UniProtKB/TrEMBL annotation:
Matching CDD domains: FlhG-like
Any one GO molecular-function label of the UniProt entry: ATP hydrolysis activity
Keywords, sorted A to Z: ATP-binding, Nucleotide-binding
Protein name: MinD/ParA family protein
Domain spans labelled AAA: 27-180
Gene Ontology CC entries for this record: cytoplasmic side of plasma membrane; cytosol
Length: 288
């Protein structure tokens, strides 16, 4: 089957993205930022580890299709990844890897930038697999690429909650504002919460929150929710170099306390509203 025929088949078979019914049990949390390199992947991974340690079945989907690196942060080298699923060369369960108790990863592809390239052969199987994943997991974390592109926006629209990561650099704050502006335009219902990362303490985090919130209130006439801050802490950088996330290794440390607090806040509030479900998310990701 050639590419054109595959696409025609997809167009014929695939229903348009269903309006999310917001009644699914699974909770999808996207982690994103305006500027790159502000800590998305580390926040994703370590918060997911914290929730898994609290007994919740948790899945990480590495949706940074250009430079996926959750696997690298874990010192893993998975043979198959989402790129193979998109190309029709593997099923979701063939790429699923166990990280630790209660924690699994759908590895991302490196070098795939164009979600328009679809070779998925067996949509029925894909739907069945998504349904099965839905019944296996309570939380799904999506690590996105930085910035505003259509794939990121689709991932954010398909999530129940968006954690916006920002640090104290003016460029990071300005870029976060730009992302919020685009997201609210495309999805006025988006539920965005700020996580200020890599700061000296609460005061600095509040300062960042204040600046970003003021811009959003003034120009977009919307408010911004604050979730938590994570201190600048060498255990994070060390974990990156050792390819062992600090939530697996470090004893008490400021960042550990903050990530645990963040996970607890998510745990206590994620049940507040129903979830949109995994099927609509995958429909968005593979048919933006
Ligand atoms: N709280 C922190 N304390 C100290 N260092 C940090 C902290 N958060 C992140 N870092 C450092 O910043 C680097 C980048 O983090 P990370 O890869 O998670 O960012 P990212 O937003 O996912 O980047 P990209 O946009 O490239 O995907 C890490 O390698 C780590 O060294
Ligand atoms: Mg990253």
């Amino acid at each position: 089957m050639d590419q054109a025929e595959t696409l025609r088949r997809l167009a014929a078979q695939k229903p348009k993205v269903a309006e999310p019914k917001a009644d699914q049990d699974i909770r999808i949390i996207a982690v994103t930022s305006g500027k790159g390199g502000v800590g998305k992947s580390n926040v994703t991974l370590n918060t997911a580890i914290a929730l898994a340690k609290r007994g919740h079945a948790t899945l990480i989907l590495d949706a940074d299709m250009g430079t996926a690196n959750i696997d690298i942060l874990l010192g893993m080298d998975p043979r198959l990844n989402l790129g193979h699923v998109i190309e029709g060369k593997a099923s979701l369960f063939e790429i699923l890897v166990k990280i630790s108790d209660n924690l699994y990863l759908l590895p991302g592809a490196s070098g795939i930038m164009d979600p328009g390239y679809l070779g998925i052969q067996n949509l029925e199987q894909l739907r069945k697999d998504i349904g099965q994943l839905e019944s296996m997991f309570q939380y799904v974390f999506i690590d996105t690429a930085a910035g505003v592109n259509q794939m990121v926006i689709q991932a954010l629209k398909g999530s129940d909650r968006v954690l916006l990561i920002c640090n104290d650099e003016p460029t990071s704050i300005v870029d976060a504002y730009a992302l919020v502006k685009v997201l609210y335009k495309q999805d006025p219902e988006a539920f965005i919460q700020l996580v200020v990362n890599d700061v000296a303490g609460e005061e600095e985090a509040e300062d960042v929150y204040g600046k970003l919130r003021a811009a959003i209130q003034h120009f977009l006439k919307r408010d911004l929710d604050y979730l938590n801050h994570i201190a600048h802490d060498d255990v994070i950088a060390r974990g990156v170099i050792l390819q062992k996330p600090f939530m697996f290794t470090a004893a008490e440390s400021p960042a550990r306390g903050h990530v645990e607090a963040l996970a607890e806040k998510l745990e206590s509030t994620l049940a507040d509203r129903g979830g949109k479900g995994l099927l609509q998310l995958f429909q968005r990701l593979i048919q933006p």
